[in-house]
């Protein structure tokens, strides 16, 4: 076992593989951190933007020709849904996707290289 | 074995008896029919899981079986079990209750509870599986002096488990009091006794299956509720939101972020605690040793993230469904039939009342039983990891210097299970009237400030030494607990000091305590020039090769 372990360490393929895979892990981690903390900081600094309606209500202000009073007419109601909602659900979906993309690649591509390295060390 | 079975049977009878007796006694004061459905459904769940426990007991012969189910769980099963371990009653009832009360803010919370999982996936899962055997201390202490690192890891595990456990037990007592009409004390004792039976007799095998069954029940129940709500609005979320805005007392405010995030420092600090704390929870980390390979470990976390994320989307829909459905029938769901007086049983009952609104008494019974089962699954996982820390890290490694045989290690873990179970019940009763809301956040803060930095640095940084890891870990531990004590939640609310006198005003200590832990590990390690440190650094390449490739990793926990 000791011997196999040393062979793995000495294999340049192993060093290359580890730095490639770790680079990928770090990119994925940074992506997750940016998306999550980006969302949190957006909430901390710009609540108004997140509260903005997807489709804003359209109103028209006219004045009564006889009395001069302002009359507000709602032309279209707009949506109740604000930017923050699909964005938040989007962060959840993004998290699920990112995790599964990593798992899929690690379990196929990475594991194949990994198995090769172990096999070479066992010879 | 025979006496085990007998005790098992007797305990089951006692628990069932207590449930029925108390249900009948208090049946007059609450809705009788609903209570009985809930109790019968819960009795079926307990009966079924105890049957599984009996089967698991016949398979739990060695310490390896007890800690990790012999390493024979598949990735898919483990993913469900992790989800079952993680989706607590607090996240189900608490988040849907938060959505019901404030709308948008509930979403912020659920995102926070999810984002720790990718971090575990990208950085920890396969390395944990490749280096570890039973507890996370196996991983953190792979090349270190065993006594100090294990002492630290066991302390870190037990402290996290203790705070998490108190929050669960108190929540259980309160919840069951409302759902089943049982006395608080009776409820806490029932949870303690049934949980102890799972862990004591069935070890990790029984705990895993309880968590899987609970996860499936919870996911099915929540899916049904969310679909029922969406069906009312023709599967158009906009229609649901529009109606909710119309009927909610806060109207349009439920569509925008409210008071949950007060200042940027608190926001980042809470975010860090949730994101990195998940990767330091001992009961979650232990689940990665139950699968046979790194591949299955990754599959586990892929499935777990999928289920947990899906579940949080459901809780969001459920919360909005509750706003629409419950306000439509205030006479049934609100105190005195008045919206202003709040929900019967408190704000956390939103999901439970919605179950009644969309599925009637039978479904209400089902959801109540699921909530009870949820608590059992979570506390069983916590107790198991606490017992493993004591028997594997402290007893077998620190006290017996690695010379303990499997039988005596197993005996110690069972004795510890009994002690932890009893302690959980006592603490649950002692903290009945206390505000324990801060305890889950504290558990996450400690996990991210003590356990996570030590684990991360020992596995990934070649120059890390025992001295650095242990010193840094304890700095993180004491700082996270200390800063929580002088924060408003404890200093003012629990210790009764005047308002505004707490000098740590942020919502979580994580940003300071986690940074301090990493800095201390780095500083002490680079200053450590002892012979031991040189030896430990020399061991890194071999550890590195094993952690990255899995060559030489423990296969199926010693079978």
Can you put this structure into words, describing what you see?
The complex is a heterodimer of chains A (123) and B (559). Chain A has a two-stranded antiparallel ribbon. The model of chain A has no long low-confidence stretch (mean pLDDT 90). Chain A is rod-shaped, with a radius of gyration of 28 Å. The longest helix of chain A has 39 residues, at 84-122. Chain A has helices spanning 2-10, 12-45, 47-51, 84-122; strands spanning 58-63, 70-76. Chain A contains 4 helices and 2 strands. By secondary structure, chain A is mainly α. Chain B has 559 residues and is mainly alpha-helical. In chain B, 77% of the residues lie in helices and 0% in strands. Chain B has 23 helices and no strands. Chain B has helices at residues 2-26, 32-59, 63-68, 75-86, 89-102, 104-114, 116-131, 136-140, 146-180, 184-232, 237-247, 264-277, 282-286, 294-327, 330-333, 350-399, 406-430, 437-460, 466-485, 488-492, 510-527, 531-538, 540-549. In chain B, helix 14 (294-327) packs antiparallel against helix 16 (350-399). Mean pLDDT of chain B is 88; it is low at 1-34. The interface between A and B is large, with 56 and 53 residues.
List keywords for this structure.
heterodimer; A: about 120 residues; mainly alpha; two-stranded antiparallel ribbon; 4 helices; B: about 550 residues; 23 helices
Architecture blueprint of SSEs:
The complex is a heterodimer of chains A (123) and B (559).
Chain A: H1 2-10, H2 12-45, H3 47-51, E1 58-63, E2 70-76, H4 84-122
Antiparallel strand pairs in A: 1-2
Helix pairs in contact in A: 1-4, 2-4
Chain B: H1 2-26, H2 32-59, H3 63-68, H4 75-86, H5 89-102, H6 104-114, H7 116-131, H8 136-140, H9 146-180, H10 184-232, H11 237-247, H12 264-277, H13 282-286, H14 294-327, H15 330-333, H16 350-399, H17 406-430, H18 437-460, H19 466-485, H20 488-492, H21 510-527, H22 531-538, H23 540-549
């Amino acid at each position: 076992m000791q011997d196999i372990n040393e062979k793995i360490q000495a294999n340049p393929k192993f060093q290359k593989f580890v730095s490639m895979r770790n680079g990928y892990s770090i990119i994925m981690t940074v992506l997750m951190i940016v998306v999550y903390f980006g969302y949190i900081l957006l909430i901390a600094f710009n609540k108004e933007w997140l509260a903005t309606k997807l489709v804003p209500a359209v109103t028209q202000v006219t004045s009564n020709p006889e009395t001069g009073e302002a009359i507000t007419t709602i032309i279209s109601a707009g949506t109740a849904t604000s930017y923050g909602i699909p964005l938040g659900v989007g962060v959840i979906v993004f998290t699920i996707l990112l995790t599964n993309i990593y798992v899929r690649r690690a379990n196929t591509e990475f594991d194949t290289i990994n198995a090769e390295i172990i096999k070479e060390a066992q010879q | 074995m025979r006496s085990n079975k007998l005790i098992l049977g007797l305990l089951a009878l006692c628990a069932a008896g207590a449930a029925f007796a108390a249900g009948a006694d208090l049946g007059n004061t609450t809705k009788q029919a609903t209570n009985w459905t809930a109790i019968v459904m819960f009795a079926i769940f307990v009966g079924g899981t105890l049957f599984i426990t009996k089967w698991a007991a016949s398979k739990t012969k060695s310490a390896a079986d007890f800690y990790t189910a012999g390493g024979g769980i598949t990735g898919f099963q483990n993913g469900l079990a992790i989800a079952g371990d993680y989706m607590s009653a607090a996240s189900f009832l608490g988040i849907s209750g938060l959505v019901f009360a404030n709308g948008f803010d509930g979403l912020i919370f659920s995102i926070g509870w999810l984002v720790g999982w990718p971090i575990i996936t990208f950085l920890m899962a396969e390395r944990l599986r490749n280096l570890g055997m039973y507890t996370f201390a196996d991983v953190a202490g792979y090349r270190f002096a065993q006594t100090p690192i294990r002492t630290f890891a066991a302390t870190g595990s037990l402290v996290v488990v203790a705070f998490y456990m108190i929050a669960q037990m108190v929540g259980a007592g309160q919840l069951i009091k409302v759902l089943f009409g049982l006395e608080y004390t009776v409820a806490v004792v029932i949870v303690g006794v049934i949980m102890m039976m799972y862990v004591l007799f069935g070890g990790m095998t029984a705990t895993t299956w309880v968590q899987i069954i609970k996860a499936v029940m919870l996911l099915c129940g929540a899916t049904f509720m969310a679909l029922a709500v969406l069906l009312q609005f023709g599967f158009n979320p906009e229609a649901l939101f529009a109606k909710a805005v119309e009927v909610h007392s806060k109207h349009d405010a439920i569509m925008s972020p409210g008071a949950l995030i007060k200042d940027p420092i608190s926001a980042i600090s809470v975010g860090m605690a949730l994101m990195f704390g998940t990767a330091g929870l001992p009961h979650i980390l232990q689940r990665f040793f139950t699968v046979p390979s790194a591949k299955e470990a990754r599959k586990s976390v892929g499935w777990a993230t999928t289920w947990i994320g899906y579940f949080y989307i459901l809780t969001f829909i459920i919360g909005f469904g509750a706003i629409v459905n419950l306000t439509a029938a205030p006479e049934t769901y609100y105190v005195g039939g008045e919206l202003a007086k709040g929900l019967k049983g408190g704000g956390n009952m939103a999901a439970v009342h919605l179950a009644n609104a969309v599925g009637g008494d039978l479904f209400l019974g089902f959801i109540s039983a699921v909530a009870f089962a949820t608590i059992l699954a979570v506390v069983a996982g916590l107790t198991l990891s606490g017992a493993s820390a004591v028997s594997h890290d402290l007893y077998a490694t620190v006290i017996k210097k690695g010379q303990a045989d499997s039988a005596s290690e197993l005996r110690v873990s069972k004795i510890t299970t009994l002690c932890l179970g009893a302690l959980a019940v006592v603490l649950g009763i002692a903290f009945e009237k206390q505000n324990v809301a801060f305890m889950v956040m504290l558990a996450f803060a400690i996990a991210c400030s003590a356990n996570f930095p030590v684990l991360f640095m020992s596995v990934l940084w070649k120059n890390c030494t025992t001295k650095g890891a242990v010193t840094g870990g304890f700095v993180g531990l004491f700082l996270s607990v200390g800063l929580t004590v002088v924060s408003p939640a404890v200093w003012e609310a629990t210790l009764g000091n005047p308002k505004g006198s707490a000098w740590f005003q942020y919502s979580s200590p994580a940003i300071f305590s986690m940074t301090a832990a990493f800095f201390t590990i780095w500083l002490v390690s680079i200053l450590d020039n002892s012979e031991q440190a040189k030896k430990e650094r020399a061991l890194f390449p071999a550890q590195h090769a094993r952690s990255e490739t899995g060559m030489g990793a423990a296969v199926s926990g010693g079978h």
